[in-house]
Design brief:
By secondary structure, the protein is an alpha+beta fold. It has helices at 8-11, 15-31, 35-47, 63-67, 93-97, 113-118, 130-140, 174-178, and strands at residues 69-70, 73-77, 83-88, 104-108, 111-112, 143-144, 149-155, 163-168.
Length: 194
């Protein structure tokens, strides 16, 4: 990759740093004859390359388990810097806790929401642009394995003060499907709309 990849300089990729971090994982997987560890290392290596054209079947290792649980919300960042609930699953954990559509999310697991979202490595990585990466980080921020406890600090639109609750992820896909870039598309749309 360091000799053949056309966008090394343009994307600022430090192949030596990547090799130093990843080579021990590949060597350990090979020494232990562990194909699963090797696939995970290959997936994580590919995620370090900021290019949406890098990937393969190995990219989905652990995908279903990592996103199986949802909180019953989808979130989106606004131009003013706030992060709000833009979808609420009726009867989902967030709804039952009293979170409403339009509520501002202030923190997840005791981290300010922007920091929490910034640390997410979406299962659909890598991405060619930071904008697309951020939208996917927002999409995956409310997903976790089933039965995972997540602490949310939020402020409903009509509330005087923020509240903090701990929710447990459940088997719900509505919020995840809502936040898909392909939601509502049939696949027959023209490639350019305007």
């Amino acid at each position: 990759m360091s000799k053949e990849y056309a966008f090394t300089e343009y994307k600022g990729i430090d192949w030596e740093a990547i090799a130093a971090e990843m080579r021990p994982r590949f060597e350990e997987a090979e020494a232990n004859n562990d194909p699963q560890a090797y696939r995970l290392a290959l997936r994580d290596f590919a995620r370090m390359i900021p290019d949406g054209h890098v990937g393969g079947g190995f990219m989905s290792v652990g995908f279903r388990e990592s996103i199986a649980g949802g909180l019953g919300i989808a979130i989106r960042e606004l131009d003013d810097g706030r992060t709000i609930v833009n979808y609420l699953t009726a009867g989902g954990p967030a709804d039952e806790a009293g979170i409403v559509l339009g509520a501002e999310i202030l923190a997840l697991n005791d981290l300010p929401i922007a920091d929490y979202v910034g640390q997410i490595v979406p299962a659909s990585s890598p991405f060619s642009t930071e904008h697309f990466k951020r939208l996917q980080q927002l999409r995956y921020a409310t997903r976790a394995p089933l039965d995972t406890d997540v602490t949310i600090t939020y402020q409903n639109t009509d509330a005087a003060a923020p509240e903090t609750v701990t929710l447990t992820t459940v088997d719900e896909v509505e919020s995840f499907n809502f936040s898909s870039f392909n939601a509502g598309r049939s696949g027959t749309e023209l490639p350019v709309e305007f």
